[in-house]
Automatic annotation (TrEMBL):
Homology family: Belongs to the non-repetitive/WGA-negative nucleoporin family.
Source lineage: Eukaryota, Metazoa, Ecdysozoa, Arthropoda, Hexapoda
Gene3D superfamilies registered for this protein in UniProt: 1.20.58.1780, Nucleoporin, helical C-terminal domain, Nucleoporin, helical domain, central subdomain, Nucleoporin, helical domain, N-terminal subdomain
Entry's transmembrane regions: none
Source organism: Bicyclus anynana
Name of the protein this chain belongs to: Nuclear pore complex protein Nup154
Originating gene: LOC112050082
GO CC annotation terms, alphabetical: nuclear pore inner ring
Pfam families: Nucleoporin_C, Nucleoporin_N
Length: 1312
């Protein structure tokens, strides 16, 4: 259930995170992707909206002054002595403001105005100032930054260090120190350097008044400071040093570089000249080289802009007064934003998307400022002095145009929802003239890793610093939560109309997410906004809002480089631009499926049966294969807002790999965490606040929303614990802990993302926790401290039972090594007791493997039974099993599955004993206890283990044992056990026989009737046998069916016919036995036929027991099987004399035909009589199936024709069991009829001669008879004598025969 909830929450978060990532791209907002060519915006009335008017709240402003800090008093004193020049600016990296007055520079913290540092070691006026993060390994570690100062003569580089007396080490509270001794000093060669800019790689670039780009290169030297540094001019050839500087100045038109911008994500450098020219330099894919790409003049920029916005005047596009680099984290296809003096924005691309290097500089979009709409209802910005673009927000310093009047700030940002390029505009007046405008990094940027900062928060408010002559002002351009906060404060609650309109404007779900953001933020003591936001969340979040939906295979917007759009050829002196055109990356991140799974835990620590039944591999992160098919449901806005907010908290790490591979100096690979412990703590703290808030939420009971919220609550709890654990791992040499994992598990960890870790990473956590604690044990250190800490941070992942399991594992290891049997047994029992105490929260596979290795097989059974009983105290699994496993009983199914997983360990122990007992070689390749057993001992131990299991009152354990035995074809072993078979065996065999396919069900039912017979229930066994014999299509052979019917008859007779239903069952079985015997005869006859019938007809005789009619019509009659016909007539009781006589005539004819090859008549007749003898013994007592008179007549006719010995027929008849009296009657009739047939056969007196021989033979037959039957027989002999004499009187040449009759009768008379 826990895994299902985590996966449900993970899949839902996938949808909301993907929906966030599916917001319209810049190309879509501006219409470039649809049109396929550069576009223009800002000319329509709806392009700019006023927040105050939109939300009907006059005091609402996106741009807000957070803090004002005046110039420190010591600096104000210096102003009175200023001689000629003053410069000011900000260092956002260290939260400092700087002020250069003549040759002195002051640096102080702009957030509180303290910590003033200064440097007065220069003699010339300072022209430009820059702060540089130095290259690693060049200076001592305490030199954090370099301060670059340029004058008309020198370039001076100072070291910047920090010292702190604060415990938290926060950068804004550290004390700054400027090292008085310069790091190095370089001459300017007469060129004034007007701007300084550094890259993230520590490179230092400067813009010269001569229009050239310079770089100061430096490298590490022995000692603290090195002198090996030099200045390079990147705008001239390598031989330019041969030309004097005054000649260079004369040869080139001077256009000074006033601004340098660097894109550290793509390693591109841009420069802006005083005349509005923009130049692009490629720093290489590693940021260590430099190549000039293109230079675009002001005239060309204006020309390109006019081509796009044809209705505007050229004056609005010049001069370009500011440029801002757009990093790759914000846009894949936008590279540079330039701002003109009128406030127009020019969006450029260099073609560096998809990892390619910059190739050109082309204008993609023109955005006009407010005031250029046809209605002209909005004021235009005037005289833009400076502008900075940062993450979609533009802030401009605009002059009022008159003397010393105060400047104003304009803020344009996409804070409003909508599909188009719609911006909110805000104007804010400031005190005095602004000297510098700088964008500040996010509040937490100093503490978070680049991996977390790479993906900026959706709601991160932009922070800006404005420096003027009176001091510094810290401003914020608020995002949607900041606007909602202002409305709640001004309106004193969520019920006001502006708040309601805010929810309507942004949509209920997005606005609920904003409210949740405010409800969970750290208010610093004033909780009123938190409470108001919580009330707004609950008030406006009850309305239904559909979950986000977007195409699963979302198509990216049309590429800018489509055939419709060909960027114009850029300016020289570049080589011809390649035909490659701008390409756009995919807008949506495609979902990556995962893989779930069997239990395998190979650490001695922590895994339990409450965790995932998964193996720690890439598939062990339990990621569903069908997340894209997650159904779209309608939930409330508060549900959606909650998922949106949690998704945005986790978005920076959601698809981030957990670890990264690095190399040591000696080229050894190791794993390190992708995020830091501070990153984990930062995210976990946010989730903790959400978790506290979620406890207040209610949902309709038994609804999908309640299930979803419950899943999210569980997911948040597990995420907090997982991140807290990850933080502890980062604090304990993560690379050492990760290296202790087996290689395949290390590979799985390297491939896993944090999404997989948070959703299904409990196994990973168990293994890593095991490595962590094992490290303490290896170092002989106490684990009490770390255990207490882990219990506080992740109580679900690290339970109290874990220590007990570790102790038990230790005892098992020692027991295996113990030589004293008594002590060994005591250790094993103690370990077993510890494991049973914490069951089922025990690493069962590991413990059972240890018990088997120690030869403690009964302990395996005891532990598994204990785990099962504690896991399922209500026996829901047994109820589920006995109810034929209904699909709707999900709880029972889950319990059944988990208990069978437990019993699998017993089966594994049996498997190892079985393998050992089957090992004829007796090899001992492993030092385990079962390998020291002989095959005979292993067989005995296996039988004992089976008996031990079957003696337990645990039916599901019995089932597991039965399944294992049946899988090994050892079911018959259950019959050899002493005592009656368990009742559970009957239930199991019955249930499995119903479910199993035909071949397997036969084996199970065959075992079942034997079990029933042994259990003393033969009547039920007979019913099973009847089903086995009569059920068609099971694959049983006819011989098996006959044996089952016979066994059924025996079982019924053994139970007694008087048993309930016994007589009827016996009748059915006996009839089935007779039919089966006939069917066997048909089958045998068909197989012996000269031309066998089709195979399917023969196969049918095996597949089912046919009825008598089918056997007769489809087989016996169709193929002239006369003997089978006779058997069928006899079996069915059908009385048709003509049919029977016809069958016998054909039988005898076939026999006669078969005897024809014999040489003499007697042999031929003897062959026919042999057939009669065989069949006669079977049918002699059946009456209607043995027409005696007809058979004897046919045989005598055959004898007459063959002229064979005349006594052979009646002697054969007597031999098959026909009484003498019956034979005499037959011959009396034959003689009396006096048919002409005998004359046609060649001997008219043949029957009379046979009668005479019969009378002679009768003397021997009469002697042993009792008196009464003998008198009757003598009387019949006299009748035959008389009938024969009467027949002979009219025939010639019969005297000899008459004499024989007289002699024979005389002998018989003496017997009377």
């Amino acid at each position: 259930m826990q895994l299902e909830c985590l996966e449900l929450a993970g899949c839902t978060l996938d949808r909301y995170i993907n929906a966030d990532n599916s917001r319209p791209s810049f190309l879509e907002l501006t219409g470039i992707s649809a049109k396929g060519s550069p576009t223009c915006s800002g000319l329509n009335a709806g392009d700019y909206r006023n927040l105050a008017a939109l939300l009907n709240h006059p005091n609402l402003s996106q741009l807000k002054i957070i803090n004002k800090v005046p110039l420190p008093p010591e600096i104000m004193d210096h102003f009175a002595h200023m001689q000629c020049h003053c410069l000011t600016g900000a260092f956002p990296e260290i939260s400092r403001v700087w002020l250069a007055i003549d040759s002195n520079i002051y640096v102080w913290a702009f957030e509180h105005g303290s910590d003033v540092a200064y440097y007065d070691g220069l003699s010339e006026t300072i022209i430009s100032v820059g702060l540089v993060k130095p290259k690693s390994g060049v200076f001592q570690s305490f030199v954090k930054y370099l301060l670059v100062l340029t004058t008309t003569i020198d370039i001076v580089v100072l070291g910047v260090t920090f010292s702190s007396n604060k415990q938290d080490g926060s950068a804004e509270f550290e004390e700054i120190h400027l090292v008085p001794e310069p790091v190095f000093v370089l001459p300017t060669d007469g060129v004034s350097l007007l701007c300084v800019k550094s890259t993230s790689k520590g490179r230092i670039f400067m813009g010269g008044k001569d229009g050239c780009l310079y770089e100061i290169t430096y490298q590490a030297q022995l000692g603290w400071f090195g002198k090996h540094c030099k200045k390079i001019n990147h705008s001239t050839s390598t031989l330019s040093f041969l030309v004097p500087s005054f000649l260079n100045a004369a040869l080139y038109d001077e256009d000074s570089i006033v601004k340098i911008e660097v894109d550290n994500t793509r390693h591109i450098l841009y420069t802006l000249s005083g005349k509005g020219c923009i130049e692009v330099f490629d720093l290489g894919s590693d940021g260590e080289s430099l190549t000039k790409v293109v230079r675009l003049s002001q005239g060309k920029i204006v020309s390109y802009a006019m081509d796009i916005a044809k209705t505007l005047e050229p004056i609005v596009f010049k001069p370009v007064i500011a440029i801002s680099a757009v990093e790759e984290t914000e846009s894949n296809y936008l590279n540079l934003v330039a701002v003109t003096q009128s406030g127009a924005r020019l969006y450029f691309s260099t073609g560096s998307g998809d990892g390619e290097r910059p190739q050109y500089l082309t204008l993609m979009h023109v955005r006009m400022p407010p005031g250029f709409t046809p209605t002209n209802s909005v004021l235009k910005p005037k005289q833009v002095q400076s502008a900075v673009y940062d993450n979609g927000t533009l802030v401009m310093v605009c002059s009022s145009g008159g003397g010393d009047e105060a400047d104003s700030l304009w803020c344009l940002s996409r804070v409003l929802p909508g599909a188009g390029f719609i911006e909110a505009h805000t104007m804010l007046a400031i005190d005095g003239a602004a000297c510098a405008l700088t964008a500040l990094p996010p509040v937490h940027a100093a503490h978070l890793s680049p991996a977390l900062l790479a993906k900026r928060e959706v709601w991160s408010s932009s922070r800006w610093a404005v420096v003027s002559a009176w001091g510094a002002a810290l401003l914020s351009a608020g995002a949607a939560p900041d606007l909602l906060r202002a409305l709640l404060r001004d309106c004193r609650g969520p019920e006001a109309q502006p708040v309601k309109e805010m929810f309507q404007l942004h949509g209920a779900d997005q606005a609920c997410a904003c409210a949740l953001y405010l409800a969970c933020e750290d208010s610093g003591g004033d909780t009123s906004v938190n409470e108001w936001a919580a009330r707004a969340f609950l008030l406006y979040g009850a309305q239904p809002a559909p979950a986000p939906h977007f195409p699963q295979n979302s198509q990216a917007p049309s590429s800018v480089g489509s055939p419709k759009f060909v960027p114009r050829q850029v300016s020289t002196p570049m080589a011809p631009r390649p035909q490659d055109q701008l390409r756009q990356g995919q807008m949506n991140q495609s979902y990556q499926g995962h893989m779930n799974q069997t239990v395998m835990q190979n650490q001695s620590f922590m895994p339990s049966f409450q965790q995932s039944p998964t193996q720690f591999s890439q598939a062990s992160f339990n990621v569903s294969q069908t997340r894209d098919n997650f159904p779209t449901q309608e939930f409330s806005a508060k549900h959606n807002g909650l998922y949106i907010y949690v998704g945005r908290i986790l978005y920076p790490i959601w698809n981030l790999k957990c670890v990264t591979k690095s190399m040591t100096p000696d080229d050894k690979e190791f794993m390190s965490s992708k995020v830091t412990g501070e990153d984990c703590a930062y995210i976990a703290k946010k989730l903790q606040r959400v978790a506290a808030f979620v406890q207040r939420l209610m949902a309709p009971p038994h609804s999908d929303e309640q299930a979803s919220l419950h899943a999210l609550k569980l997911f948040i709890t597990m995420s907090i614990e997982m991140l807290s654990l990850w933080k502890v791992l980062c604090e304990h040499q993560f690379h050492v802990i990760a290296a202790s994992l087996p290689p395949e598990q290390q590979s799985a960890l390297q491939a896993a993302s944090f999404r997989e870790l948070l959703v299904g990473g409990q196994e990973v956590a168990s293994l890593l926790l095991g490595s962590l604690v094992a490290g303490y044990l290896r170092d002989n250190a106490s684990v009490d401290g770390i255990s207490q800490k882990l219990r506080q941070l992740c109580p679900t992942l690290y339970r109290q039972e874990d220590a007990t399991c570790s102790k038990a594992n230790e005892l098992l290891i020692f027991a295996k090594q113990q030589k004293n049997p008594a002590e060994r047994e005591e250790m094993l029992q103690q370990a077993l007791k510890l494991c049973k105490d914490v069951a089922p929260n025990v690493n069962l596979p590991l413990v059972c493997s240890k018990l088997v290795a120690a030869g403690f097989y009964s302990g395996v059974v005891e532990l598994c039974v204990a785990c099962a009983s504690k896991l399922d105290p209500q026996d829901a699994a047994v109820y589920y099993y006995k109810s034929d496993q209904p699909s709707q009983d999900r709880e029972g199914h889950l319990m059944y599955y988990r208990r069978m997983e437990i019993y699998r360990e017993v089966c594994l122990a049996l498997e190892r004993l079985y393998e050992r007992s089957s090992d004829a070689n007796g090899s001992t390749t492993q030092p385990d206890a079962h390998h020291t057993l002989s095959p005979a001992d292993a067989n005995y131990q296996g039988r004992q283990l089976v008996w031990d299991c079957l003696c337990r009152d645990d039916e599901l354990l019995h089932v597991a044992i039965y399944e294992w035995l049946v899988s090994k074809n050892l079911g018959s072993e259950l019959l050899s056990l002493s005592g009656a078979p368990p009742a559970s065996l009957r239930t199991y065999l019955s249930a499995m026989a119903r479910q199993a396919p035909a071949p397997a069900s036969l084996l199970l039912l065959d075992l079942l009737w034997k079990v029933l017979e042994k259990a003393g229930d033969p009547l039920v066994a007979a019913h099973v046998l009847e089903g086995l014999a009569t059920k068609p299509g099971t694959g049983a052979t006819l011989a098996q069916r006959i044996s089952w019917v016979s066994a059924g008859v025996v079982c019924v007779r053994g139970a007694g016919v008087r048993a309930a239903g016994g007589a009827e069952l016996l009748r059915r079985l006996e009839e089935a036995a007779e039919v089966a015997r006939v069917q066997a005869a048909v089958r045998a006859a068909l197989r012996a036929a000269p031309v066998p019938p089709p195979h399917h007809l023969l196969q049918r005789l095996d597949d089912e027991l046919l009825d008598i009619t089918q056997l007769y019509e489809e087989y016996a009659d169709r193929y002239n099987l006369w003997e089978c016909k006779l058997a069928i007539v006899q079996c069915s009781g059908h009385n048709d004399a003509l049919l029977v006589e016809n069958i016998w005539s054909n039988i005898l004819a076939d026999a006669e035909a078969a005897a024809r090859p014999l040489p003499c008549a007697d042999e031929r007749l003897a062959s026919v009589l042999s057939k009669l003898n065989t069949m006669g013994r079977e049918y002699v007592n059946t009456g209607h199936c043995f027409p005696l008179y007809f058979i004897v007549r046919q045989l005598e006719i055959m004898s007459c024709k063959l002229q064979a010995e005349k006594s052979m027929v009646f002697r054969t008849i007597l031999n098959i069991g026909v009484s003498l009296e019956q034979v005499l009657d037959i011959y009396i009739k034959l003689v009396s009829v006096n048919e002409r047939v005998w004359l046609g056969c060649g001997d008219e007196s043949h029957v009379c001669a046979a009668a005479a021989l019969l009378l002679e033979a009768a003397r021997a037959e009469l002697s042993p008879l009792p008196p009464t039957p003998r008198r009757r027989a003598l009387a019949r002999c006299k009748d035959l004598h008389e009938a024969t004499l009467s027949a002979l009187q009219s025939r010639p040449n019969t005297q000899e025969l008459i004499d024989k009759l007289t002699v024979a009768q005389a002998h018989l008379d003496r017997l009377d």
